[in-house]
## 1
Amino acid sequence: MHVDDFDFQLPDALIARHPTKERTGSRLLHLNGQSGQTQHLNFADIESLIEPGDLMVFNDTRVIPARLFGQKTSGGKVEVLVERITSPNTALAHIRANKSAKPGTLLTMEGGIELEVTGRSENLFAIRCLNEQPLVELLEQHGHMPLPPYLEREDDDEDRERYQTVYAQKKGAVAAPTAGLHFDDALLQRLADKGVNTAFVTLHVGAGTFAPVKADSIEEHVMHAEWVEVSAEVVEKIKATKAAGKRVIAIGTTSVRSLESASANGEIEAFSGDTQIFIYPGYRFKTVDAMLTNFHLPKSTLIMLVSAFAGQGNVLNAYNEAITEQYRFFSYGDAMFVTPQPFTEAFAETLAEQSPSFNLNDDSAASAQSKEL
């Protein structure tokens, strides 16, 4: 399949550059993946779409204020975006400067943070913090929230709270699991009172989530690595939910990727480590029964994932309808509640014709449709 198969034209005015006044103040498009039908709702109406006994799975990662501004010892301006904390005083980071930073380069950042570039691997730099205080604490004090580049604005005080889910716990993300931004404590309590169950996984979202797919054929794209943890307790909740005939509902594509990474062997099991799973049409989902997600960038791996779940034609039709109805797009935008398109042999045969790497005889389709460490 080609990356252009997932393109659409979005008016700039529909990019949500600021959050709604209330977390639950967004709109909700309900896409039925089986029929392709859509329904236009308010986000609080999600209560009507989730049944007692269903299990909502959230990503409890916490966004760190990972962006720093400063200068080299030579005086040139520099911007550092921490991608992953590797020890109390070391990290992997993206560095933007007029000239590429070489090992040994010293950087003086806001708040008196002193960094040394110690190496480089592909597009990431290894850095060491020369201050005594742990780097993550310095970032919390002096860093900026790493807003997505398409927002085209600097972060402000409001982003410290709103670019963070109310249930965020484990520090490590440099991008928010945005589907979860729509929930407030009151809505979560109403769902609990209804008998809806919850579970939490962790996927530390990296800046690579915004990386474009550069290959013309999506099968040639290699995903960035992100750290995931799915505990044995969550696995037991999922198994009990399915045994009761209820649904596992992933809140966000990061929760989808977490659960499906832990299901690589065909059945979900406890998992901790890096994942590079790449889900696109042809992938057979093993654990996720429904998902909540925001509207994603054209040609992105995220719209490919949603298309794998609900059908490429259904998703693009829903996106075009959302544009007509003036929905708000991307991280601070509106949401979709999506149910799956059945995987049929006729569909598999069509994919086999379109994608040479698709293996019709592989029941899991995982070897052809995902790449994992």
## 2
Amino acid sequence: MNITNVRVRLVEKEGRMKAVVSVTLDDCFVVHDIRIIKGDGGLFVAMPSRRLSTGEFRDIAHPINAETRKLFEDAILEEYQKVLEESVEQV
């Protein structure tokens, strides 16, 4: 599996959510609504999730091992930094 495209949309509103991301795998499968969140320990990647009737959240799609999670996080955060730098340059 290869990540063939990462599209980052910055969130303009103030708050913990910094961006919404779509990741394309092997030019044939897309995962939308991945979020970049600023937490107490820095930025982290939150997979798309749904709120259950109990109020807790459950991931809809997610990596099933640490190696794949790292692949996703590295690609997403790298593209986020590029988009963030480009947006600052345009101001």
## 3
Amino acid sequence: MTEALQRLRRLLVGFETGMAGLSLLLLVLLTLGQIIARNLFDTGLPAADSLTRYLVLYITFFGAALAADGDRHIKIDVVCAWLASPWRSRLFRPLQALGALICLLLFQAALRFWRDEWQYAADHERWQVLLNLVIPVGFGLLCLHFLLGLLLGERRTEPRL
């Protein structure tokens, strides 16, 4: 069971790394193309500004999932900074469960929002709504990483800041 969860974690990290890297590459290329088109040809690439906004979301969510996997995400558990190491280890799983619960609630809200957006979007705007799927998918990935942390426990032995 643990080996299957570890394999799932590795597959997720590989997928998220690839998506974040591809999104960053596309963002740089699209932005460069837009700059060249505007400065040299007095025109722009159609929908480039919208796409760059979505690519930033993709980079953010896939990067956040990678940070959650490595336990390097932004933490608000200030009390843990003052606790001794054994107490921090005891709080790891409950905090992972809390993070998973919060991300699950955000996933459900984002999915409801996306469904409403899809239902009321004009036909010519549906491509943007499809790109917005990254928001519920991102929160779902974050929830999954917190659940994996809950089930597998801490991976690091060195002290974290």
## 4
Amino acid sequence: MIEGKFYGCEDLKIGIVLSRFNSQVTERLLKGALDCLKRHGISNIDIVKVPGSMEIGFVLKRLINKDYDALIALGAIIRGETYHFDVVANEISKAVMQLNLEGKVPISFGILTTDTLEQAINRSGAKSGNKGFEAAMVAIEMAQLKRQLI
């Protein structure tokens, strides 16, 4: 069976693209992701901050051609009173999936799409764990899996 491992990953290079919008949530996601990576001995980490979730795709597309083993997209899209939530959530999801299909580097999707700020806080380290930590776990596993598939 071929699957990604969570050991022997100290030499991985990870890139994180972080949205500043809803920073009270996204900074908590980042903290969780960094905690996970450091627990696994990964110290070669670059962080690129962008204004909002729609801008994440632009940076991911540029980083995918660099020498990263995996990339992590972190953001928080919280439903408001307008259609904007649906547009942003749908488009960034499509962009990350398209880059995953076309690129040579796996991208972990750590972008929250919630109805309320409370839900986002719960998923960024309160009641429901930290989705940033989980996204980093996915990045490690996929980076290790990628090595086996080459």
